UniProtKB/TrEMBL annotation:
Transmembrane annotation, as ranges: 20-43, 55-83, 104-125, 159-186, 224-244, 264-283
Coiled coil feature spans: none
Residue ranges, annotated region (Disordered): 306-325
Amino acid composition bias (Polar residues), ranges on this chain: 314-325
Record-linked InterPro entries: 7TM_GPCR_serpentine_rcpt_Srw, GPCR_Dmsr-1, GPCR_Rhodpsn, GPCR_Rhodpsn_7TM
Keywords (A to Z) from UniProt: Membrane, Transmembrane, Transmembrane helix
The species this protein was found in: Euphydryas editha
GO CC terms of this entry: plasma membrane
Name the record gives this protein: G-protein coupled receptors family 1 profile domain-containing protein
Length: 325
């Protein structure tokens, strides 16, 4: 629904909505890819108790695909925060700094950078085999599973890159920007109070009302983005801390602790993508209006007669002219 609304002509005009659109696209692909993974892991696998090679290949693809798109989502969220910071901090030059071209560069970079950052993960994780002995009359078989190499410098480099560059560094930047945005909102509220006091003068009342309307629209956008950033921090910061500790404490901590909380962190990341739609609806009037129009168009389209084609309407007009003659 986010993608459907944000691609409408009214919404797609603003560069910040383009960033939100591609953030929604990345989240949608991650969630869609999790559907077959969850069906097989939680419904099929417990019944079969089998670990075929095809499942191991898919698991490896799932891990890399989800990480690349999730990293792209992180880059887009970071771009979103920086974009809003520039738009408010340098409002007099925002039309020069926040251009369509720079928005396109930010989106393109957000999708090119993740595969490069994930190269250590591609090299560390691989398909391993394990011989399962016969139990209770069931014949033995070879189980294929995805695991990391527990030794070597590359293993540590992978966790440092994942924890510091992909998780903790963006979280630190977002924390600083979020604090600044909160302060900017507080200053805006104080400014609005001063304007209300100033509006006691009748001559300035119209100008003050216009300014007050613009400020309220800016504040709503800032509050919405602030909620997106804070939700992102809640879901990503624990992963960064656990990843950093896995790099420091080694393979044993990774297997005992990181793997233990892996499913919870995956669920939080998926929940983050789903909650964004509720945030947009609750905090953006334009988003709600566009969403309402989209629903009404789809609901009432089946009751409306089809629009005649150009040739049909031309023939209709010709027939009408002949009858008149």
């Amino acid at each position: 629904m986010n993608v459907a609304v944000l691609t409408r002509r009214d919404m797609a005009a603003a560069p910040i909505n383009r960033l939100l659109k591609w953030l929604a696209v990345a989240d949608v692909f991650v969630m869609l890819e999790y559907v077959p993974f969850s069906i097989y892991k939680y419904l099929v696998l417990p019944e079969k108790l089998d670990f075929p090679y095809s499942w191991a290949i898919y698991l490896l693809f799932h891990m890399h695909f989800a990480q690349i798109l999730h990293t792209a989502s992180i880059c887009l969220t970071l771009s979103l925060a920086i974009w809003r910071y520039i738009a408010i901090k340098y409002s007099d030059r925002s039309h020069i700094l926040c251009t369509e071209r720079r928005c396109s560069i930010a989106i393109l970079t957000s999708f090119i950078l993740p595969p490069i950052l994930c190269i250590p993960t591609f090299m560390v994780f691989d398909i391993h085999t394990k011989n399962i002995t016969a139990v209770n009359g069931r014949p033995g078989y070879i189980a294929y599973h995805v695991d990391s190499d527990s030794q070597g410098r590359l293993y540590q480099v992978n966790f440092w890159v994942h924890a510091v560059l992909i998780k903790l560094l963006p979280c630190s930047i977002l924390t600083v920007i979020s604090v600044w945005l909160i302060r900017a909102l507080y200053s805006a509220n104080q400014h609005q109070k001063n304007l209300r006091n100033y509006s006691a003068c009748p001559a300035a009342e119209k100008m003050v009302k216009r300014q007050h309307k613009a400020d309220k629209r800016t504040d709503r956008t800032t509050k919405m983005l602030l909620a997106v950033l804070l939700l992102f921090l809640v879901t990503e910061l624990p992963q960064g801390i656990l990843g950093l500790m896995s790099g420091l404490l080694g393979w044993c901590f990774f297997k005992r602790c990181y793997d233990l909380f892996g499913e919870i962190m995956d669920f939080l990341a998926l929940l983050n993508g789903a909650i964004n739609f509720i945030l947009y609806c609750s905090m953006s009037r334009q988003f709600r209006q566009t969403f309402r129009q989209l629903l009404l168009q789809r609901h009432f389209a089946r009751f409306l007669p089809p629009n005649p084609s150009h040739s049909e309407s031309h023939n209709q007009n010709t027939c009408t002219e002949k009858i008149k003659r």
